[in-house]
């Protein structure tokens, strides 16, 4: 089963996205902020991380840079999630080490396609 780590500070967003992905057969774990997301990435070694960008003290960019700088977690695909849809935000996310970028509210079929691409496999 594919393990997805959702790093999201908004409890409603965590709950809604987590439930939608669980119904699609994913195992879900959550982290509420950047430092917790970094620790969870190291401990859980998820198959993919969905990283909110607006996380507070340590934003998703910094958390992603830290995850990608660690030899143990560098290979985990990270997909940035943000309500800001500007091309500059996408470029900043990719520069921070994110493998892909998507906007909120989440379009589930589009996000599933990005997860599939990040994993390099077809999801059933």
From TrEMBL:
Pfam families documented for this protein: Response_reg (PF00072)
PANTHER family tied to this protein: HISTIDINE KINASE, HYBRID SIGNAL TRANSDUCTION HISTIDINE KINASE J
Domain (Response regulatory) ranges: 3-119
Protein name in the entry: Response regulator
Tree of life domain: Bacteria
Record keywords: Phosphoprotein
Organism of provenance: Paradevosia tibetensis
Biological-process GO terms, alphabetical: phosphorelay signal transduction system
SUPFAM superfamilies (UniProt xref): CheY-like
Entry-linked InterPro entries: CheY-like_superfamily, Sig_transdc_resp-reg_receiver
